[in-house]
Amino acid sequence: MKNRLFETGQILASTDWSPMDAGLAQPAVDPTTDLDIAIIGGGVAGLHTAYRLAPRYGPRIGLFEQDQRLGGRVFDVPASADQTDGPFVQLGARRIMDGQSVLIGLAQELGIPLQKPEMLEELGFTRGMFSTNNDDFIRVFPTLDVDRARGGYETQLYERLLKGPERAHVDHYPNLRAYAEKVIGKEGCAFLHDTYRFRADHEYDLNAKAYLDYLDEENDAGAICPSGHCQSLYPVGGMSAYTRGMEQSVRELGVQIHLSEPVLAIHKCAAGYLLQTPRRALTARSLVLALPPVALAQVQGEIPEKIRAQAEFQALVGVRVTTITQWYPEPWWRGIVTANGRHVWRAWTTGHCINSVEIPLEEYAAPQNAIRVVYNDQTDCAEKWSQLAKGPIAALEKEVAFGLTHLFGNNQVTRPVTIGTPSKTVFWEWPDAWYYLRAGNHFTNHDIYRWAVHPLPGEDLALVSDGYNPQRSGWADAAYKSSIHYLNHRFDMRLPGLGRRT
């Protein structure tokens, strides 16, 4: 994976690295590094697991992370390198939903305030038309099969997918597309695809039953709502406020944290498991593999090989996402208002690969003059941005400006604005921003969730990541729930937040 950070044309950082680059030297086993529990992966699932286990095991836990930071896809950056204490802008996860009780409870536990800005207007473009009301797009979807007198066309379509009589036969369909076309028709599928900021859901070859089960949980969390007008909560300090709070506690309790130290190979040994990093070899009696599938695929040894051979592992498919964040001297987007003076907080388009734009409204983020100008999960657009990021910064910024002008320059819905010149541009690519189940397998999301806590019979190890909890609702929620499931199952912690799931 290659990511580049630009500032006025200068590359600040570039990574193009995999654990295999370090080779597999054979350092001697250091008997002082024998661990009770080794946690491999310092994303929020691994860090949360260490946070809960630290009071019991303290320095007998080792946490290994290949990056120089903890948090994984919870990745916040400051405007400049000298602002180590923030404020921070989010490159990955930005928010939680007001139905996500696990993250709300953890915020209270860690003393993180949550800001609740008003979700104002969402501007969209498809089939040559701009609007801030998805129902207006019925004009360019004239054959859409909905009750026009009732309105709420997006909600009507989802209700038919989730609650219609055909769902009882969903297992008979080869994939999500076939099921959806049967239930809501091709024009209904096109409407949901074109009037929503995420497109991969409708483009990847997904298991229909698993996807509908996931939508049920999204609905429970409050993430499915007409025209995207859901209530979002934003932590003061960014999503990394969770990471910093847990990391401080873990370090105070003596957990060994090894940053920039990937685990290259895992083997069985008499003491349990032999782990090899570029710096050392060590043993652990119990393993928590907090690596998403795309990262676990790079680890050598018979243990990872056995996991990858499991049909459950092979059923998972990661969604590729690219984001671009820009800082500006002046927040030109504050001028994007409707005729009645309402501000736009989000915009999407099918007319350009910027795909989705997120405008910060919360009190913590708004003064930073930073905006996520690209949030894209379409495969062809992800490839386009990835190729542009390899070239001159000017070419990438020109393409971003073209897309922003298309959306906001003169759309006849909001007041025209002039796009400024950015002072800093950050491109980031997530090869697996979230996971679904691919079509052609018989597993449910719950099957994967249960399998992950004990994927290999007779082995004291578990898989902890949102990658193994495809019943996910949001960037971070599923990772925490995966960790809680493991902790409750293995250590009888009885942590709340999983509802009826076992």
From TrEMBL:
It comes from the Bacteria. Residues 44-335 form the Amine oxidase domain. It holds the Pfam family Amino_oxidase. InterPro entries: Amino_oxidase, FAD/NAD-bd_sf, Flavin_MAO. Gene3D superfamilies: FAD/NAD(P)-binding domain (3.50.50.60). Belongs to the flavin monoamine oxidase family. This is FAD-dependent oxidoreductase. The lineage of its organism: Bacteria, Pseudomonadati, Pseudomonadota, Betaproteobacteria, Burkholderiales.
